[in-house]
Amino acid sequence: MNFARIISGVAHPMLMPLISVFVIFHSGTYLDFAPHQLVRVIYMIVVISTVLLPLSILPLLKNQNIISDIGLEKRQERLIHLVLTLLFYFLGYYMLLKFPITRIVANLQLAAIISILIVTLISLKWKISLHMAGIGGFLGMVIAFTILYSSSLKLVFMVGIIFAGLIAYSRLKLNLHTPSQVYAGFIVGLVTICSCMLLI
C-alpha cells in the first residue's frame, strides 16, 4: 500500500508537463542548444502555470470550504480544481507564445489544455483517472516529438511505459479507480496529446 502511495505521489499528473519539457530540452535536437536564459524562463513559466498555481489554490479552496479534501477524491470537487487549472494553463500558454523559437513547448501546453478540457467534460458524468491521463499524455508527447523531430527517444518511451504500468497498479491498489477508468484515462491522454501536437 505504501509503495502504491509513493508511485501515485511521484508520478502526479501535475508534474508531467514539467517532465515533458525537460525531455524536449534533452532530446538530441537543436532544442538542446536553446539559450540557457530562455530555457530558464520557459521552465519558470511551466512550473508556475502547471504546478505552483494549481497546487497553491488548493489550501484556499479548502479554507473556503469549497473542497473538503486536498486529495480531491470527490468528483464535483475535482471539477472545480480542473476548471481553475485550465485557467492557469491558458495563462502559461499565452506567455509561452512570446518565444517562437521554442513554439513546440507552447504547442505542448495547448495540447495539455485540450486534454484537460476533455477530461473535465468526461468528469461531469464519470470519474476518469487523471494520473493515467497524465502519463498517457507524456507518452503521447514522446511519440509526437519523435515523429516531428526524428529524435530517438526509445529509452524515454520505455521508461514511460514502465511508469504507466506502475501508476495503473497504484491507482487500482489504492481502490481509487476501476480498470475502465484507468484505461480510459491513459487512452484519452495519449491520443489527445499526440494528435494535437501533430496537428497544431
What do you see in this structure?
This protein has helices at residues 2-10, 16-24, 36-63, 75-96, 103-123, 130-149, 154-173, 179-199. The chain has 200 residues and is an all-alpha fold. Helix 7 (154-173) runs antiparallel to helix 8. Keywords: Membrane, Transmembrane, Transmembrane helix. This is Phosphatidic acid phosphatase type 2/haloperoxidase domain-containing protein. The chain crosses the membrane at residues 6-26, 38-59, 79-97, 104-122, 128-148, 155-174, 180-199.
Question: What is the subunit arrangement here?
Answer: single chain
Beta-strand share of residues:
under 5%
Q: What is the β-strand count? A: 0
Q: What is the number of independent domains?
A: 1
Mean pLDDT, all residues: 90
Helix content: over 70%
The number of helices is 8
Measured on Cα atoms, how large is the radius of gyration? 16 Å
Overall body shape: globular
Class derived from helix and strand content: mainly alpha
> N- to C-terminal separation?
41 Å
Largest sheet data:
none
Low-confidence stretches: none
Q: What is the N-to-C order of secondary-structure elements (H for helix, E for strand)?
A: HHHHHHHH
Transmembrane segments: 6-26, 38-59, 79-97, 104-122, 128-148, 155-174, 180-199
Keywords: Membrane, Transmembrane, Transmembrane helix
InterPro entries: PAP2/HPO_sf (IPR036938)
Protein name: Phosphatidic acid phosphatase type 2/haloperoxidase domain-containing protein
